[in-house]
UniProtKB/TrEMBL annotation:
Domain of life: Eukaryota
Upper lineage: Eukaryota, Metazoa, Spiralia, Lophotrochozoa, Bryozoa
Pfam families per UniProt: Cu2_monoox_C (PF03712)
The UniProt record lists the keyword ATP-binding: no
Protein name as catalogued: Moxd2
GO cellular component: extracellular space; secretory granule membrane
Length: 143
């Protein structure tokens, strides 16, 4: 496994059985894709094409999915901004935006956050960086 913040995945993997897709008020669609380490396989793990910030829920996968070291997860959000007349920033308040997928898995691992950030530069003094420790060099998560 590469020397990265994603080393918490054991060699025999983890089994994902549920998820929560999350965006804020402008979120319209959220999708979670899985790609195998060798890139030969891919699958949509979760998708909500009618996302509503007011109706977020934990959901079960129809079939649990084994994630192995080197697999890639990609979360894609689509936003609808027809009435807002100002720039929308990424951030924690619901008036700003984010694009996340929370995964429920077993066996338990000693990790509390695993994430990536878009390929934009970010000030490491930024409160979001300080809280979540995002890796700014990746736009997708490789575990």
């Amino acid at each position: 496994m590469s020397n990265s913040i994603y080393q918490w995945i054991p060699d025999d993997g983890v089994t994902v059985f549920g998820y929560l897709l999350h965006s804020h008020l402008l979120g319209a669609k959220v999708k979670l894709d899985w790609y195998s380490k060798d890139g030969r396989q891919s699958e949509v793990l979760a998708e909500d094409n009618s996302y509503d910030f007011n109706y977020q829920e934990n959901r079960l996968l129809p079939v649990p999915k084994k994630l192995l070291p080197g697999d890639t997860l990609k979360v894609t959000c689509t936003y609808t901004d027809t009435s807002r007349n100002r720039f929308t920033y990424g951030g924690e308040p619901s008036t700003e935006e984010m694009c996340l997928a929370f995964l429920h898995y077993y066996p338990k691992q000693h990790v509390n956050t695993c994430g990536s950030y878009t390929g934009i530069s970010i000030n490491q003094d930024d409160p979001i960086y300080q809280r979540w420790g995002f890796n700014t060099s990746r736009s997708i998560l490789t575990i």
